[in-house]
Write a structure and sequence with these properties.
The complex is a heterodimer of chains A (about 550) and B (about 70). Chain A has about 550 residues and is mostly helical. Helix content of chain A is about 70%, strand content about 5%. With about 70 residues, chain B is mainly alpha-helical. Chain B has 2 helices and 1 strand. The radius of gyration of chain B is 19 Å and the shape is elongated. The chains are: A mainly alpha (about 550), B mainly alpha (about 70). Chains A and B meet through helix 11, helix 16, helix 19 and strand 3 of A and helix 1, helix 2 and strand 1 of B. Strand 3 of chain A pairs antiparallel with strand 1 of chain B, so a sheet runs across the interface.
Chain lengths: ~550, ~70
Amino acid sequence: MIDGFPPALVLIGGAVLAALLRGRPRDAVFLLAPLLTLWVVWQVPDGVIVTTEFLGYTIAPLQGSPLGRLFATIFAIVAFVATLFALRQAKWYELTAAHLYAAGAIGVCFAGDLITLFLFWELMVVFSTIVVWCGGGADARAAGIRYAIIHLLGGVILKVGIEGIKTHTGSIELQPIPLDTFSGWMVLIGVLVNVAAPPLSAWIADAYPKSSPTGSVFLSAFTTKTGVLALILLFPGESVLIPIGLFMIFYGIVYALLENDVRRILAYAIVNQVGFMVCAVGIGTELALNGAAAHAFAHVAGKALLFMTAGVVVYRTGENLCSNLGGLYRTMPVTAVCGIVGAMAIASLPLTSGFTSQVMITEAAMLEGTMAIYLLLTAASAGVFLYAGIRFPWLVFFQTGSGRGTQDAPWNMSIAMIVMAAVCILLGVFPGPLYELLPYSTEYVPYTASKVIFYLQLLLFSGLAYLLLRPWLQRSATVTLDIDWLWRRGLPWLWLASARLIEVVRERATREVFDLGRRIGARLLAVLGPYGALGRSWQIGTTALWVALMLTLYVMLYYV
Amino acid sequence: MSRRVWWGFTILLAITVLAELVFPVDGRLDVDGWFGYAAVFGFAAGMVLILVVNLLGRLLGRPDGYYDD
């Protein structure tokens, strides 16, 4: 009976039911819904399962595929672990919104056409915005509005592209879209907004840190990785994605190294890691696409773990800035160990999930013979270790700091972090089961002595550079300008400057018009007023003289 | 950072390089098979990135609360 049931509906039903319940039954529904969803995900066979008519379109809201199943699996796992993490700290409406957000992401995984994809895409936008707002306060409200504007704009661009493709080809099937039409580019741009590609990449570092310590765990998992899934489905092998991905990689490294806010570092790290995936999709070989999918899977786990540890730190200390943290390993050992595991996973250290997935991407670039891309990706791996492998754990858990006498994570948060840390290590030590789920069959062997030694040298010597030049990266309480300066400062400044200019022009024009009116009035008054030449009373004799002169003039002109 | 940690880290670095004597790195390009290539490349990449970040930090850094005014 369950065969062919849309997994997204399980989460949606669970979220609605949980909203109607109270106390332990609600907690139970919140926890069971993602687990049931995970089971249902694995009951969906390959191929189109359901088709229906919707607004004149024949859509396929349920289509099974290995790639969709892979993404849906990690989405459901993270939804469960993040729910456990948030269960006793988050408000019920935040968890409800987060589950509906996750339902959107899982719906995209099983979408069989562009319209279904778009509908679940927008479901994500709506409920992820609510998750941002659940951060509370004016900052979260403003960031949520900016987040919603950018994603709704991306949605409009995506819809324009989809309509164009429907008009020109008559098909809304999910298949690779060539970039030889305006519509194809619109779809690509719409998807790139979700993966935080330039120039609209700043929304991620703007919005995610403003959410609650629990909400940011959900936010880190779904939006960007759903975008990666869409890129794999729609634009595999599009070479334009390679420079975009490389830009994202180095942009993420630079800003993560500059940043002082603990969750903003992680937000930029998302851009950096998604850049690897975007670049791999651009390379487009089977190994590269497998690498992109595997890295998305591994990254969801690793980044959720890091956002959990950061969430615990923020929750316990109330501090967001690294410059106010430090020394927490003494008082928060569980959080510190889990944070270090997550950091090593993101830094792709051997025996962690990041290694077994990222080496596939780097090797794909090497096998393709694109030496420059290979060298840049290798340099980027060293760069990631700088901020993720050393800087993040150093600033948060070590460096000179009091530790603030705070407690470690509550039990539910601790269990969630330990589970996700175990996932990161298991994926690193036993990557075989993950490789079996990849879209293309692979015999890839990540662990050879050569690769391990190469990456250990690369990462650890990069770490040496950091330790030697650490004073150069000392951060005070500062923010780093990003592209969002344009709409957070630039546009308001332009608006105020324009308003001031208009006001000055209006005042000047008003003054000039009044002056002109006054001068004309005075002149007219001088001529037509009671004492003017034409207005004053004339004596009868003078009038008769003027009449005689005028008549004489008329007679003379008549005979000329 | 304590002297003991520095020594430990230095030994770790040395082991990763010396291990190449026993397990040569199988470079696919000419240069990446050279002895200690990844160590030099990783160190150089780290240095360059830190220098770039330092410069950009001076250029793009603003006081905290810059957007709150």
